[in-house]
Amino acid sequence: MNLTLKVWRQKNADSQGAFETYQIKDVSEDSSFLEMLDILSEDLVEVGKEPVAFDHDCREGICGMCSMTINGIPHGPERATTACQLHMRHFHDGQTITIEPWRAKPFPVMKDLVVDRTPLDKIIQAGGFITARAGSAVDANAMPISKAIADYAMDAAACIGCGACVAACPNASAMLFTGAKVAHLNSLPQGKAEKDRRTLAMVTTMDGEGFGGCTNIGECEAACPKSISLDMIAHLNRDYAAAQVKNFFKPVA
Amino acid sequence: MNLDSKIPEGPIAEKWSSHKFNMKLVNPSNRRKYNVIVVGSGLAGGAAAASLAEQGYNVSCFCYQDSPRRAHSIAAQGGINAAKNYQNDGDSVHRLFYDTVKGGDYRAREANVYRLAEVSSDIIDQCVANGVPFAREYGGLLDNRSFGGAQVSRTFYARGQTGQQLLLGAYSALSKQIGLGKVKMYNRHEMLDVVKVDGHAKGIIVRNMATGEVSRHAGDAVVLATGGYGNVFFLSTNAQGCNVTAAYRAHKRGAGMANPCYTQIHPTCIPVHGDKQSKLTLMSESLRNDGRIWAPKDPAVAAKIRKGEINGNDVAEDDRDYYLERKYPSFGNLAPRDISSRAAKEACDEGRGIATTGLGVFLDFRDAIKRDGQKTIEERYGNLFEMYKCITGDNPYETPMMIFPAVHYTMGGLWVDYNLESTIPGMFVGGEANFSDHGANRLGASALMQGLSDGYFVLPYTVGNYLGEQGVAAAGKVTTDHPAFAEVEADVKARIDKFLSINGTESPRSFHKRLGHIVWENCGMARSKEGLEGAIKELQALRKEFWTNLRVVGDADGINPELERAGRVADFIEFGELMCRDALMREESCGGHFRIEHQTDEGEALRDDKNFTFAGVWEYKGDDIDPQLHKEQLVYENVKLATRSYK
Q1: pTM here?
Q2: Based on the domain organization, do A139 and A70 belong to the same domain?
Q3: What is the CATH number of the domain that holds A127?
Q4: B294 vs B343, B365, B402, CA distance in Å?
Q5: What is the pLDDT, as a whole number, of residue A151?
Q6: Do residue B126 and residue A135 have CB atoms under 8 angstroms apart?
């Protein structure tokens, strides 16, 4: 198939970006979206132009590195699918496709489609862990965890940290990302000791990094390639409220 | 090159304990005086960086991705082995050890494998404590599944995303240390060389991939956990960024490279669809429990399928060749990875391949659906069928799946002793980047185990031992002002300038594809003297062409994917040659290495234990000088060498 691509080009963080239009020919419908961009890159290199820079790595939908908004939707039109797992058969010959970076203030554009997502790492660094020094663990079966809780924790832990939720949200909120990690760790018995401290620290960092608040729009869940549920935000709100109350009477950290 | 494996004395079950006792310790208050460099943030690197920081060392950790959470360990699906014996089915440390040595076709070092089996239990405990949501039974205890090469159920898993969950566990421990300031994390940094001072590894040169800045980093020890080299084949199941550069640069500075020809080719991947493809996707081995693998008997029928005139369902039962069931009646479709892969290649070489490229065979669920009903098959493999459909657009409930083998894991790597120290003192190597534990073939669910074993439980001891031996007076003494840093940095910069100034006509990706084609054809599933000798010549010519006709657009001052790829491909080309040399040297067939000259009358791998029970370790001698082979003899005191048979 032949396509028209409108791609965001931006030299670096300080420069003004703009869309550029490219024609691309003979794209196989079996190609993935990123393979289509590879072809564009080779075409551009052929004429001595710089290829489009974009983040990508595993190309099997799990590393969370790929990050682009396709026709206005983070990761593109297919539900629960990362850009790297999106295939060209979902587009048609002659179509115009618009490709831009994640648009969110906490994620400044570094070049073309590449953005800086380190604020998400900082949220994890603030509290997204269970303190268990290597060598200090008891036998893994010493603490039975019901299947329902383990499954719920796994649902939350499936987050790949791509940031599509932030890009999709009109408020650039990272509540789904933060909520998923809080729900994962707070719901497990081994995560209880640090629960309140974790929740407060992560939310404080999230706000400090410039992410907006949640106003229950739900775009995050719709864009999430791993179908992380809005329930995780409810979980975060619940744990945050409880931690606030406890902290009011007696500091939790 | 000194290949002293430093295996501790004593019975195998006591080696690690006694070794730990004999190690030098560093006083907790002195640990903060040392800096340790860790390159890579996957299971081995991330766990090592976190654990060393927990102990009190200052750690600098580097990864090429935008976050340490994205290392390719994340893509592992199946699970992680551990000798917990929670199923009460006869598992033990010794059995896991035995299975791993046998699975590796008797080409791994006994003592290392035993230690791996020994700490496997601790890994599961550690991961659970870190919050890894392993699958559980209704009673709340951990669940297990079975995997290839074992007769016990010892694999722990977290849905089909075990690697992701284990990596996120290590990442969270690492993140805590980053937050505390004990680990300084360098995202989007690629290691381009190692710096030696008085023979010891004392630092690295890295390029900041976001700004283009080349910088020096000094440390009292260097840990490489930079993964495998599967991308030398261009197409593999590895992530796009996986590369051999860090390991190969270390090799050029004096680190021995062991068994580079040992590569694992996984039989059940989705076939290549065209020459624009960038990666191959693995389909879980578990599908072979119910799927039947076949190719048409008649090449003419296969040709019709390739042209799309008919599909698999149109082929009558009598015209199908269920070749695994025919050749290996007792194992059938569950024959081991290396054997299944070679059989698929054979069918395709005979012109009986399907898929548009002719490089594919069928994995057919028709009979299973007829027998058990679609609902049952859906329950067992629903998510895999979905994934297949997403990638290929075909519905495997209706038409048979098409599969083809793909490069998946590399058992070879930098040579390390029992302490995981390379032939460069002070440079340690963990995870897939080293050669130590899997011999010539890796068993399923053992890669995650090895990465975390190295990271959580081995390197934190052995690196400390090295630092203790160096003495606290040496801590932090070498700084980046040392002339050795200036020298290596100048080399790195000159190389980058060279890439940008060749101004030829061919892109790095194009060279990479050509490289991949040469090594896949000649050093892939079946290797021959003639093919390997030809490949070495072809690769030498390709290298020459690369350095005269490469075209890298853009500049060195910021994000430039072309420049990054150029550096990686340059190293891959040289590494590919080394791989072929190793395969040529090894005049036997073992595990993933199959030399067509060395097979039984029935076409099975024929090992030569008398002459080849050694690890082949290559020493770099110069760009146009043949590398020198050294041998570490492998001694088997606890496992008896035997032939693997699957008839």
Answers
A1: 0.97
A2: no
A3: 1.10.1060.10
A4: 10, 11, 10
A5: 95
A6: yes
Mean pLDDT, range B621-639, rounded to an integer: 96
- Chain A CB contacts of B277 below 8 Å: 31, 35
* Chain B contacts in chain A segment 152-211 (CB below 8 A): 153-154, 157-158, 160-161, 184-185, 188, 190-191
Given a contact cutoff of 8 angstroms between Cβ atoms, the answer to whether B328 and B647 are in contact is yes
Cβ count near B285 (within 10 Å) = 19
For domain B268-405, the CATH architecture is Alpha-Beta Complex (3.90)
Interface touch B67/A53, C-beta < 8 Å: no
Decide if A138 touches B, using CB distance below 8 A: yes
For position A106, which CATH number holds? 3.10.20.30
Look up residue B290 and give its two tokens: 């119910």
| Interval B474-512: pLDDT, tens | 999 999 999 999 999 999 999 999 999 999 999 999 999
* Contact (Cβ atoms closer than 8 angstroms) between residue A70 and residue A168: no
Cβ pair B67:A118 closer than 8 A? yes
Residues in contact with A58: Cβ distance below 8 Å, sequence separation at least 6, in sequence order: A65, A84, B70, B72, B74, B75, B239, B240
Tell me the C-alpha distance between A146 and A149, whole Å: 5
**Per the structure block, which two tokens stand in for A142?**
């010493």
Whether B69 has a pLDDT exceeding 90, the answer reads yes
Nearest CA to CA, how far is A14 from chain B (Å)? 12
Mean pLDDT over each residue of chain B, to the nearest integer: 95
User: Across the interface, which of B137, B139, B276 has its CB nearest the CB of A28?
Assistant: B276
Tell me the ipTM for this assembly: 0.98
Tell me the torsion sign for CA atoms B479, B481, B483, B485: positive
Task: Out of A43-57, B18-32, B375-389, pick the least confident.
Answer: B375-389
Counting one residue from A and one from B, how many pairs have CB atoms under 8 Å apart? Answer: 223
Q: d(Cα A251, Cα A245) in Å, to the nearest integer? A: 10
Please indicate whether, in this complex, the C-beta atoms of A59 and B65 are within 8 angstroms of each other: no
Query: Least CB-CB distance to B165: which of A57, A157, A188?
Result: A157
The β-bridge partners of B221 are B36
Query: Of the candidates B54, B124, B391, which has its C-beta nearest A134's C-beta?
Result: B54
In this complex, do A30 and B47 lie within 8 Å of one another by their Cβ atoms?
Answer: no
* Confidence label for B396 from pLDDT (cuts 50, 70 and 90): very high
CATH superfamily of B12-264+409-474: FAD/NAD(P)-binding domain (3.50.50.60)
Closest residue on chain B to A31 (Cα): B277
Residue B337: is its pLDDT beyond 90?
no
- Would you call A184 and B133 a contact, using CB atoms and an 8 Å cutoff? yes
CATH class of residue range B483-633: mainly alpha
Domain boundary assignment for chain B? 12-264+409-474, 268-405, 483-633
| Pairwise CB contact (< 8 Å): B131 & A188 | yes
Same domain, residue pair A144 and A242: yes
CB distance A118–B273 less than 8 Å? Answer: no
Mutant choice from B66, B69, B186 vs A, greatest count of A C-beta within 10 A:
B66
pLDDT tens-digit series, residues B213-234 = 999 999 999 999 999 999 999 9
- pLDDT interval class at B77 (50, 70, 90): confident
Q: Are residues A71 and A22 in the same domain?
A: yes
- Residue A233 lies in domain: 117-249
